[in-house]
Sequence to fold (134 residues):
Amino acid sequence: VQASGIHHLGVAVEDLEEALATYERLFGAEVEHRATVDGQGVRAVSLRIGEGRVELLEPLGEDTPVGRFLAKRGPGMHHVAYGVADVRAALAELTDAGADVIDEAPREGLFGLQVAFVHPDSVHGVLSEVVSAG
Ligand code: CO
Fold:
């Protein structure tokens, strides 16, 4: 798939407010969106840093995807998200290219975005997301 660029970096954190304050203080981050998504087990903040974007993810519990990630690997980089024009078309192209896609179909991500994830084993250890803003 031809990605238009890196849409955001996802970072797993233990304390969302503390992490947010760190990104504001160190890098001049500004809050773009906030959401608690019970279905995904996260509290999240989208930050703009200049033209870039960082998504901070705090798990709602230990038995959630981000909670398990934190327990196993500790806080830090969780995923890289690439902007694409059409997530459904991107999924088909990724599948054709032999990538192990986690989502068979686009799903509602954070902040109203359409997203799908690609297994880290297909991307040299990096959980990767494709996202369209439409
Ligand atoms: Co993301």
Notes: Strands lie at 5-12, 30-37, 42-49, 52-59, 76-83, 107-108, 114-118, 128-132. The CA atoms of residues 1 and 92 lie 9 Å apart. The chain is about 25% helix and 40% strand. The longest strand covers residues 5-12.
